[in-house]
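Lab meeting minutes (informal)
Scribe: AK
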Amino acid sequence: MDLAFLIAVAGVLLLFGAISRRAERSPLTPPLAFVGVGLALSPVGLGWLDLSPSNEVIHGLAELTLVLVLFMDAVRIELSCLRREGNLPLRLLAIGLPLTIVLGAAGAVAIFPGLGLAAAFLLAAILAPTDAALGQSVISSPRVPVRIRQALNVESGLNDGIALPIVLMLASLAALNGETNSLAYWLRFVGLQLLGGPLIGLAVGYLGGWLVLRATQSGWMNAPFQRLSGLGLALLAFAGAESVGGNGFIAAFIAGLTLGNTARGVCDSLYQFGEAEGQLLTLLVFLIFGAVMVPAALAHAGAEALVYALLSLTLIRMLPVALSLLGSGLRPASYAFIGWFGPRGLASILFVLVVLEAGRLEAGALLETVVVLTVLLSTLLHGVSAYPLARRYGAHVALTGEAPEHEPVTELPVRVQHSDHASTA
């Protein structure tokens, strides 16, 4: 492995770690710091890091991170709470997410006339999932009502897993380039992707969760291996599904969702793994994103890509959110707040890497440029605005008394916890 890359990783981990508690109350988020360092060390900066976008290590890291993120995001979601208290997240997922994809595809066709319909929908689907970790101050701030925080947290935890099958199907359609396949081919493909993967994930999540829970309760499994069991189960679900022709990413998501709702007694240990080892993988992806993907995108980005990226973060996200929240009783300020804080981050980066690795996409370069530019702008704009807007919105909504925003809900874990010092500020 490149020594310059190792030095960069070690250096930014130590230096940012030294100020991490202070940074929680500033616009400097961990993803923004790692993207900035990656860009500074890239060929367009100091030139210390010169990694090839086709590097197998990069794609291997992307796949491993996506498997773990899908698994850990799903583990956090308690379906009984979602059924009982999930009016807002269900609105965002069942109405807002599909409308975002449709509106995003319409915008892509209008801005990029040469883009095929399947590729336009693919671009929209890749950019549909949100990454609440880019606005961590929002979902960790006690100033923001718990109901609003949890709506954003649950939406972010589930929309990547929901969008993934759509992305995979659209990628297959976009790669046909005018060719056709038989009905039997598509039935087999859909069956393996949408049935094979979930069934493997269901089995691994249920049986694996039972095993870890029983071993823990009997005193046979110690705390470090309880945390590591999450990685083992995620990889087992992925590899098991891939070995039978199913989709390993979908299997990992379903495994996490199953384990999180059948063996909640072991979930605390998994959260700890996700906050440390899982965050390390995530930050490595953001460092590579800044060092490898951003320079290439900036070199090819035109005005159209910038316009679409800005629309994706504003109108394409905020209008569907507003429509999905009609009748909820929330105030206009809450519509705007929830609509704005739908950052695009890790899932979009990993989705585009996985799609491009499969190859055969004529519009692959354009999709990568637009996705990278959107995530770059989101990392900056949402990172900078999260803390001040959380304070301002919290102060505004505190004056509303018995408004629907203040209805009590169960607070589910977030991907990365902030310190008590920052959260109470």
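Next up, CB showed the second protein from the same session:
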Amino acid sequence: MSTGAYGDDAFEFLLNPDNSASGQSQPSASPAGRPTTAGVANQEPVVDAAAFDPPEQVQTRLERMKAARNPLCEAAQPLLRMLADMPASLDSLAAVASLRSLLVREVAAFQKVCDKASLPWKHVAAVRYALCTALDEAANRTRWGSGGIWAAGGLLLKFEGEVDGGEKFFLLIGRMATDPQEYIDVLEVLYRILSLGFEGRYSVAADGPRHLEQIRQRMLTLISGTRDTMRLELSPHWRGEEPGRMRLLKSVPVWATAGVAALCVFSLFAWYKYRLLAQSNALEAKILAIGEPVKVAAPVVHERLRLSILLKDEIARGLLSVEETASSSRVVFRGDYVFLPGQSRIRPELDPVLTKVAQEVVRVGGNVTVTGHTDNQPIHTAEFPDNLVLSERRAAFVADVLKAHGMPGNRIEAVGKGDTQPVADNSTAEGRSRNRRVEVFVTH
């Protein structure tokens, strides 16, 4: 892959600290003994990540790096995730500043764990440069990062003192591709950055997407060949069975194999013969049954429970009467025999009778209407100011007994009619006695 018009000097700013891009200045050594990056205009010190990364977190990352095939790629995972999940919108400049601080901290942490892992400083510097460039490009593409808001304090400017990373990113690839054994870990990280959408100088170049795809494919081929992770054989299992594996089967006599096969065939034939005979017998029985009269079972008629039968003992004692039709039943309580005079309570000795009626009504089922009636003799008490209230209270009392024995509340209604529906002449004592009553009307 060509390194472009910049030549080798574009790579020296990271990989050859002994000479600057102009070939004249000599950088000083870093405190750790590693040469500082030459050609950096911004000499502000790199942010120390010690205040942000507790020792146990750094130690955990170091352990993962030691276990990884590519320690550089493992160390760069947080920044790669940030590159993939760059927010599309931020609601304030404070949020932009917070994101920039987070990225600065993570770049510094990346540098720190790589130093502790004793990774080659050239590799670390190249990956850091590429990550800063890609993160700056991703931020500048957003609405909140466009217009120079992010570029004024970009990561590449802060850590490297440069703003043209989109050109040098591809120069790094071209230079490292000449020695893939040395820079294979770096190339793999740069390949991941390209796969996450980094375009660099090709974002404005004619036919840029095609060039980017060609670079990615060449890098994949280079990495795969260097890592030896891809099999080149079209059929890695083309060889047959090794001698000796079929020796046991070859030792079985032919006549034994033929005998077992014949037994299996005969057993299969016998099974299908049996199934065919069974189906033939069933079909023959169906043919013979044609024309015979079909015996239809008589429908089972369930006799409806009748209150006149269930309450025959109470009817015989004259405590109540029952009138029934095909769809309803009416149970009538004589008020003089059941309720105390001028009261809504029944006589104590008739509690079992009312309980029996409630149980049988619930047993029969249906919708129930309890209606209270009185004679035309006026009543004026504090509890019962008139006959209508007295009839309502008596009906409600009987309805409560029915509910207490299992009648659903939504299927029962209690009403009072007072003296509006007499069944006898109120001018005689016998007629008034018949008019004082409570009726339980059940519809089936």
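CB comment: The chain has two domains: 9-227, 307-443.
No objections, moving on.
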